[in-house]
Amino acid sequence: MAIYQQVAKILEGEIRTNFKVGDFLPSEWALAKRFSVNRHTLRRAVDELVHSGMVLRQHGRGTIVVDNRIEYSIRKRARFTESLKEMGLKPEARVVRQSLTQVDEAFSRDSGFLPGTNLLELCTLRTVDGEPICIISHFLDIELVPGLADQYREGSLHAYLESTYGYQVQRRAGYVSARLPDSEDATWLNCSQMLPVLVVRSHNITQTGKPIEYSVSRSRSDRFEMKVAML
Amino acid sequence: MAIYQQVAKILEGEIRTNFKVGDFLPSEWALAKRFSVNRHTLRRAVDELVHSGMVLRQHGRGTIVVDNRIEYSIRKRARFTESLKEMGLKPEARVVRQSLTQVDEAFSRDSGFLPGTNLLELCTLRTVDGEPICIISHFLDIELVPGLADQYREGSLHAYLESTYGYQVQRRAGYVSARLPDSEDATWLNCSQMLPVLVVRSHNITQTGKPIEYSVSRSRSDRFEMKVAML
DNA sequence: GAGTGGTCTAGACCACAGG
DNA sequence: CTGTGGTCTAGACCACTCG
Lengths: 231, 231
Description:
The structure is a homodimer. Helix content of chain A is 34%, strand content 32%. By secondary structure, chain A is α+β, with helices and mostly antiparallel strands. In chain A, the strands form 2 sheets. A 6-stranded antiparallel sheet of chain A has the order 3-4-5-8-7-6.
């Protein structure tokens, strides 16, 4: 692990245990001296804390602690949200429907795929403790994932894409909205059609920047609150 | 403007016009030479593009373009989301209700204020082109904002807090959920109680890290989709 | 003016990807 | 092995805050 990461980790722990919100960190100079690293390296460490929202730099004044809650660590691990992690990464998932579609003009604007592209739509249901929480429609360029329709049945789709095709799927953007579920979603989610669902649309790409998946998740709003870290 | 910011701006423009998604940037060495800056400075410039999601670094391979759409510039300006910007920063806002409350245990957990704190609740309605879009409940520690209840009537609350009290309000966290509006919200938003609202809870602090405002916004889900930038 | 964070330069070496 | 990005050090000067 890089030095700046080790320093960041130590600082993180100390801030949680010894600092109150509003306290100032020692100066960069002092911290650099204490850890016997260059000031740039120390700054790189503090950058980590800044990015995760734990401290705030104030030009000419110092670096102030703005968050020392334990839950911070959770937020940090799931870079986007805990809930998206549930939606995308947990193994309690199974395919409940699949079909083929072709991209038209309107869908092209939403999904980012070129019109005319042939897509495989996989619909997966995510459950936690046996309770349905979230249903996701995944749209994938069928030419990039030959055989997926026949083979993938459950577990993490992204892990499957990596192990089978070598794609490292990355999220590019998220669009959050809300609506009432259609009857099919309400059935799968085992909830009333009067209970809104939180909708997250995501554009996902491979490590080479090629769009590989567009997904639309619908989550029960009584079971979900999405946490969003600030920059 | 710092050199790295100027370089970032130039690169941003060139990527939009001359690069396709999937293209690689010239190497850091080449770019540094071209702009006559140190490689560290060039890296700092590319850091900006990485953080805004335009490019992706690949150790040992290069830096790849993953997004060159125009709308990117919008996304960049509103660091969190365009919609939160609407909710928090646009001038089409007016106070529709205000009241005093005291923090109890449950509200303390939600808001982060200490139990027993006296709060001023301001309810503001945000409209765009005269159409109501969003209603926000702002909860402020009354001791920190003496006179606010009598004086603030419309416009940006955060700008008012800065000009009047010198507070630079910063968002700390956002929690997104959805629900059906209560009848009062539906009335203000001029919508059906069957139309879900997107709920965003935010904790806001001053430049000294002191919690100053807890807000809960409710937005019409037919007019709003919240964009969330990824790290 | 003293102290803090912000930026820039210079040079070095390491770790990874790919021919 | 070459080229790429990743990290670290060293030293300098600037911009801001506050007493």
